[in-house]
Amino acid sequence: MRVIAGAYRRRKLHMVAGDQTRSTKDSVKESLFNSLQTHLPGQTALDLFAGSGALGIEGVSRGLRFCEFVEKDRRAYHVLLDNITDLAIQQSTNTHQMDALKFLNAKAGRYDLILLDPPYDSDLLKRCLALIEENTILNPHGVIAILTGKTTTVDIPSTLTIKKERTMGITKILLLERRPSL
């Protein structure tokens, strides 16, 4: 696994051993970030279910000013820390070893980009989207990028709309933004 583009292009990333986390294929990551390119420079992001941190790190490499990572699994969290240290991007990041739902319930901050890549066969996506809306965690012109299984039905809160949808292999990419006010 590697960083695809930007300041850390071609840098290798450590992977999480075992089957508790799922690595995002380079082609999926590239497609996602090519779609997000105009949303990255100087912005802030939240990478929930961060795993090794590959998504948030790709964003930092491509111009995010700051990325906050949340990962519950202890092994994955230590791989995330190793990747951040190896790239020397500590000043552009903050990490939390905790449950994503607890983080969203406790968080007062707002982000321009939220990266959601929860386990495919769970209700976590629906619960996270509800908490993001309830706690106003997405900035008004922000984007939520979701990676989920291609057959997963996503319950989108009425305040959000699909900006882009693409399926690549077993993965569905969704970009959500706020529904325009009438």
Strand order, main sheet: write it out: 3-2-1-4-5-7-6
Percent in strands: 25-35%
Q: Which descriptor suits the 3D outline?
A: globular
The N- and C-terminal alpha carbons lie at a distance of 44 Å
Mean pLDDT, nearest integer? 91
- By DSSP (H or I, 4+ residues per run), the number of helices equals 5
Strand elements, count: 7
The SS-based structural class is alpha/beta
What would you give as the CATH superfamily? Vaccinia Virus protein VP39
CATH top level? Alpha Beta
Please characterize this protein's 3D structure.
The model has no long low-confidence stretch (mean pLDDT 91). With 182 residues, this protein is an alpha/beta fold. 40% of the residues are buried. 28% of the residues lie in helices and 27% in strands. It has helices spanning 26-36, 54-61, 74-87, 100-106, 124-134; strands at 44-48, 66-70, 93-96, 111-116, 138-149, 160-168, 171-178. It starts with 25 loop residues before the first helix and ends with a strand. It has a seven-stranded mixed β-sheet, sandwiched between helices. α2 links the parallel β1 (44-48) and β2 (66-70). It has a single domain, classed as Rossmann fold. It contains five helices and seven strands, in the order αβαβαβαβαβββ.
